[in-house]
Specification:
The protein starts with 7 loop residues before the first strand and ends in a 13-residue tail after the last helix. The chain is built from 11 helices and 5 strands. It has helices at residues 17-26, 45-58, 71-77, 89-103, 135-139, 143-153, 177-186, 188-197, 215-220, 222-232, 245-249, and strands at residues 8-13, 34-38, 62-65, 108-111, 130-133. The longest helix has 15 residues, at 89-103. The protein folds into 2 domains: 8-159, 3-Layer(aba) Sandwich (Rossmann fold), CATH 3.40.50; 177-249, no CATH class. Strands 3-2-1-4-5 form a 5-stranded parallel β-sheet, sandwiched between helices. 35% of the residues are buried. The chain binds iron/sulfur cluster. Residues 40, 83, 88, 90-91, 94-95, 168-169, 172, 174, 256, 260 line the site of iron/sulfur cluster.
Length: 262
């Protein structure tokens, strides 16, 4: 990787494996690197645990950035209209705005953990003082290297990868149906909370997290979902033989964006 100039250097952690591996990769190379985490307030407990582990094991400070208004306030302002892949208002207000506010007008390098074996676009700020940098792409690091960085540093993977394939809010609409079933098993309280945001009454517009059905309808056919998942991928749930759901679903999971899932 090329030497950089006097700008600030910022790495935004999503709570996912790639940005964590990038922290491992860079923390000796860029001593003044700033680590930030945009906390929607609706992250998984495992994510907070993982960030705590990163602080302890890498000896870094992670600045937690919060949105000015929380999700519930935004939801009210949006008339109860849940965010979806087609109307993804949440990323802007919960993640991108707090980040850009934190950066202000400073000129910075913003480090992004997209790997050399991936074909996806990163968060490209419309602000020209924020210059994206892609060290894994520049240096040709692929998935096996990320695994190696995490395992050899002792950090390992976030625990949620055993039952879910991506980081982000517990109610994220990018989850596959099997991941909703897993959320119900792992965190029934969070599943119930996600249900409360849906509007499924007969006299009102229907707003649901998962396409075509509400969470209560989805969980009623839990066994069927587990069965259909087994048909697609012939393994048990919850990471048998050390496999993580990110490995199993990785190729077929809809990728949200690198702000939330990296
Ligand atoms: S994780 Fe999902 S729900 Fe949360 S801000 Fe990102 S896209 Fe929206």
């Amino acid at each position: 990787m090329k030497k950089s100039d006097e700008r600030r250097h910022v790495l935004s952690l999503s709570g996912g494996k790639d940005s964590a591996a990038l922290a491992v990769y860079l923390h000796d190379k860029i001593p003044n690197l700033e680590y930030v985490f945009m906390d929607t307030g609706y992250e998984l407990p495992e994510t907070y645990d993982f960030l705590q582990r990163m602080r302890a094991m890498l000896g870094i400070e992670i600045k937690v950035l919060k949105p000015k208004r929380d999700f519930e306030t935004w939801l009210e302002l949006k008339g109860g209209y849940l965010p979806s892949p087609f109307k993804r208002w949440c990323t802007d207000v919960l993640k991108i705005s707090p980040y850009e506010l934190y950066i202000g007008n400073d000129k910075i390098f913003s480090y992004i953990g997209i790997r050399a074996d991936e074909d996806r676009e990163g968060y490209l700020s419309s602000k020209d003082n924020i210059i994206p940098r892609y060290p894994f792409i520049e240096d040709g690091l692929v998935y096996a290297d990320i695994e190696n960085l995490l395992e050899s540093s002792g950090l390992g993977f976030p625990e949620y990868y055993k039952w879910r394939s991506r980081s982000g809010c517990f109610f994220c609409f990018f989850q596959q149906k099997i991941e909703w079933v897993n959320l119900h098993n792992e965190h029934p309280d969070l599943f119930k909370k996600a249900m409360e945001y849906e509007k499924v009454g007969k006299d009102q517009k229907r707003f649901t997290w998962s396409q075509e059905e509400s969470l209560s309808e989805l969980i009623e056919r839990k066994e069927q979902i587990i069965e259909s998942f087994k048909d697609k991928v012939p393994v048990k749930l919850n990471g048998p033989n050390g496999r993580k759901l990110v490995d199993i679903l990785g190729g077929c999971t809809q990728r949200a964006c690198i702000v939330c899932d990296l």
